[in-house]
Write a structure and sequence with these properties.
Organism: Candidatus Woesebacteria bacterium GW2011_GWA1_39_8
Strand content: 15-25%
Structural class: alpha+beta
EC number: 6.1.1.7
Number of helices: 17
Radius of gyration: 25 Å
Protein name: alanine--tRNA ligase
CATH topology of the largest domain: BirA Bifunctional Protein, domain 2
GO molecular function, one term: aminoacyl-tRNA deacylase activity
Number of strands: 16
Distance between the termini: 58 Å
CATH architecture of the largest domain: 2-Layer Sandwich
Helix content: 25-40%
Largest sheet: 9 strands, mixed
Oligomer: single chain
Enzyme class: ligase
CATH class of the largest domain: Alpha Beta
């Protein structure tokens, strides 16, 4: 079964009766105006406002396939797991959601049906499926409801599902979801709930790792030996934290399901290696041709990393990202330079044409889905330039590495500064020698040279729209007022080019030839606070995109929007609003909730690009 068949079957299964979900468009991989994340990292991320209670234009039952990318920060990096049979940085997440509609009974039965049905689903053997549930703790009880549902679901397929044999209970770290972590980490007002994962058993003889991380226990779904592959996770958002150790049931209980297309396709093929699916077949074949080696034994990890990283790179460049030393550009640069290191191990001498052939294979795989073959020349130009820059120093850098007997933060920084070796690559090389690098010391080296990249800030890599703290909500609404005020004072040519919001401040980038004068800054700040003092309502309307554009609502022209959008406006009516923007939230209900806005420093960060910092006192 191909990945396209799996994707189509899943969407059709949940849109058909009696499930009757509405298919929604996927969000862009790169969200220019999402202040708290670099990339769309899950199907759930764009839907957080609706999981929090806002109505969705398409109703209460939703389904889609969402391209996603996970490559977090300096100290926690999914790229380090790529190289085994199942981890990737770019992936597609098949998802379905219930926004206060159906719950556990329907969700678990439907997903099980999709997995085992030979006509409408994947036709997997029910006896090959294993389950995990939340074991409970001192704050929230064990998820016995899911256990009982799973027993009945398996019984209907002729399988006896006993606890600790087919259904396993795990702690919150494994089987709990909230925006802020486990129940003890959640703040008052946060929502969350237990989740239930489904694993496919490829058989004990297919173990990939000899040593389980649970060495004293028999093999089980979460032992990470390689035998079991997680293929789907149903999150049940049913609790709200109301006090220290106290949780109440939510009146609106939600279902948030996610299943990786790569893994589901691997299960449908009965092959534990996702790189053996058609989602990587063309890329692996291209790597084999340019390297002269076969996808086997010692070459597998190298080929997996190259194929995954070049796929992620192609999607990022297609989304407008260019290699740099900051944020999204840093991640892209890391993907390309790590690919170059692996290609050198695989082939020795290599050129930009080798990488071009792999990226062309990526476009063949996704042509007509998410990528357009007409853009392959542009993507290869960016890749060629970056590989060329790194290629000029890679040999000298590797020779320098050979001279280093013991790595430390200073030497790691020198390798980055002099030879362009990102920290992650240096860490990986020396990890093979059994050596580690003190990350805090490395950060200090950056600070000492005043070149600390935003990628070393953990805040920008967390959560996406999941940060619903009162401070962030106030600042998010304040940025709407900031943009409206800038346009009023400077002119309607002003457009937002990016923003980043933490609990402490809002960083706002906009188009303008020069920095504001002192008088202009005072006018902008005064205009914002006048609106706040009037305590105007903040509302939204859901409407067709063309109709929303006709209202004059501001939006990012380089972002892809669905046919239906949400417009937030400040004022009594949309027609007379002071501010109108395409946005997914979060926001205050009245401007008076924001408090006094103070504009801090401003700086010119590029040609025609100004950055302002705003604070709420």
């Amino acid at each position: 079964m191909t990945s396209r068949e799996v994707r189509e079957k899943y969407i059709k299964f949940f849109t058909s009766s009696p499930r009757n979900h509405k298919e929604i468009s996927p969000a862009p991989l790169v969200l220019e105006n999402d202040p708290t994340t670099l990339f769309t990292s899950s199907g759930m991320q764009p839907l957080v406002p609706y999981l929090m209670g806002e109505p969705h234009a398409e109703g209460k039952r939703l389904v889609n396939s969402q391209p996603a990318l996970r490559a977090h920060g300096l100290t926690s990096d999914d790229t380090e797991e790529v190289g085994d049979n199942r981890h990737t940085t770019f992936f597609e997440m098949l998802g379905n959601w219930s926004l206060g509609d159906y719950f556990k009974k329907e969700q678990l039965a439907w997903f099980f049906e999709f997995l085992i049905d030979k006509k409408e689903g994947l036709g997997l053997e029910p006896e090959k499926l294993y389950i995990s549930v939340f074991e409970g703790n001192e704050f929230v009880p064990r998820d016995n409801e899911s256990v009982e549902i799973w027993k009945k679901v398996f019984e209907s397929a002729g399988v006896v599902a006993k606890e600790n044999e087919r259904i396993f209970a795990y702690p919150a770290k494994k089987n709990w979801w909230s925006m802020t972590g486990t129940p003890d980490q959640m703040g008052v007002g946060d929502i969350g709930g237990p989740d239930s994962e489904v694993f496919y058993d490829f058989g004990e003889e297919l173990k990939i790792h000899e040593n389980s991380v649970y060495k004293e226990d028999p093999c089980h779904p979460n032992c990470e030996c390689g035998r079991f592959l997680e293929i789907g996770n149903s999150v049940f958002i049913q609790y709200k934290k109301v006090g220290d150790g106290k949780f109440d049931e939510l009146p609106q209980k939600n279902v948030d399901f996610g299943g990786g297309l790569e893994r589901l396709t691997a299960a449908a093929k009965r092959d534990p290696d996702v790189f053996n699916t058609d989602l990587f077949a063309k890329e692996i074949e291209a790597i084999e041709k340019v390297s002269g080696e076969s996808y086997q034994d010692a070459y597998k990890p190298l080929m997996r990393i190259i194929s995954d990283h070049l796929k992620s790179a192609a999607f990022l460049i297609d989304a407008g990202v260019v290699p740099s030393n900051k944020e999204k550009g840093y991640i892209l640069r890391k993907f390309l330079r790590r690919s170059a290191i692996k290609m050198r191990k695989l082939k020795g001498d290599f050129g930009a044409d080798d990488f071009a052939k792999v990226s062309e294979a990526v476009f063949e795989t996704y042509d007509g889905l998410y990528l357009d073959k007409k853009k392959i020349g542009e993507i290869n130009r960016v890749i060629s330039e970056e590989i060329g820059k790194f290629g000029n120093t890679i040999e000298r850098g590797l020779k320098e590495i050979e001279k280093i007997q013991k790595i430390d933060a200073q030497k790691a920084f020198d390798l980055y500064q002099s030879y362009g070796f990102p920290l992650e690559i240096t860490r990986e090389i020396f990890a093979e020698k059994g050596q580690t690098i003190d990350l805090e010391e490395y950060k200090k080296e950056f600070e000492k040279h005043r070149e600390l990249s935003r990628t070393t800030s953990a805040g920008v890599f967390k959560g996406g729209l999941a940060d619903y703290s009162p401070e962030v909500i106030k600042l998010h609404t304040a940025t709407h007022l900031l943009l409206a005020s800038l346009r009023k004072v400077l002119g309607e040519h002003i457009g937002q080019k990016g923003q980043n919001i933490t609990k402490e401040r809002a960083r706002f980038d906009f188009s303008n030839l020069e920095k504001l004068t002192g008088e202009e800054l005072k006018k902008v700040e005064g205009t914002i606070n006048d609106v706040i003092d009037k305590d105007l309502p903040v509302n939204f309307k859901v409407m067709p995109k063309e109709e929303a554009e006709d209202t004059g609502a501001v939006h990012a022209f380089n972002e892809k929007y669905g046919d239906t959008v949400k417009v937030y406006y400040v004022g009594e009516s949309l027609e007379d609003a002071i501010s109108r923007e395409f946005c997914g939230g979060p926001h205050v209900t009245h401007t008076g909730e924001i408090g006094h806005v103070r504009i801090g420093k401003q700086e010119k960060i590029g040609a025609g690009l100004i950055r302002i910092y705003a604070f709420v006192d």
